[in-house]
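Researcher: Sequence recovery benchmark, item below. Answer with residues only.
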């Protein structure tokens, strides 16, 4: 209970500092909106807590930052996986469905053997080394992953990014961010949005 109270207070302070709304639970039906994203199809008993939100009428956008947790089976036991998530909905976006996440050694092995797909960019070897990017419509995805996006993630490591239509999701898988860095996630999410929006 003490940890939950501390988390509640961290989010309240962050919302006050950023001049955003705060709710302890998912009052907006966010989880229902995100069922097509990989993160929210993992495991079971997914739950959203501690939501800070902003609606911008001029930009036609809604922004939410929240904690998301789910359970997964580990042998005979369950493990709780938690992360802090940035979610943006904007009519300015028309994203193809894509999934970007940190590239690991076994991904490179799979790619060299032709077992896994990855959209690489010759003009940004650092991005291609840092991340595995997949999706059905490669040409459409490349249209959105222009130089500003590639340059940003060539430096920023460890992120997962998912896009689909008007929706954009950014997080570090399995990382529950501290109170001081929740506001950083909010700012980074907006920076990514600015680079992806046409």
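Model:
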């Amino acid at each position: 209970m003490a940890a939950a109270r501390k988390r509640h207070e961290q989010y309240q302070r962050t919302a006050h500092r950023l001049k955003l709304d705060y709710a302890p639970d998912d009052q907006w039906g966010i989880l229902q909106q995100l069922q097509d994203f990989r993160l929210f199809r993992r495991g079971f008993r997914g739950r959203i807590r501690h939501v800070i939100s902003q609606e911008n009428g001029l930009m036609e956008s809604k922004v939410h930052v929240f904690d998301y947790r789910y359970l997964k089976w580990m042998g005979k036991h369950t493990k709780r996986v938690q992360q802090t998530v940035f979610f943006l909905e904007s009519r300015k976006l028309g994203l193809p469905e894509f999934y970007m996440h940190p590239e690991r050694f076994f991904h490179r092995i799979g790619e060299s053997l032709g077992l896994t797909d990855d959209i690489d960019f010759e003009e940004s070897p650092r991005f291609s080394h840092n991340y595995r990017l997949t999706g059905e419509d490669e040409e459409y995805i490349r249209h959105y992953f222009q130089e500003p996006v590639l340059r940003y993630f060539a430096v920023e490591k460890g992120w997962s990014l998912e896009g689909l239509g008007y929706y954009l999701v950014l997080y570090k898988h399995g990382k529950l961010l501290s109170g001081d860095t929740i506001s950083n996630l909010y700012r980074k999410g907006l920076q990514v949005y600015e680079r992806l929006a046409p």
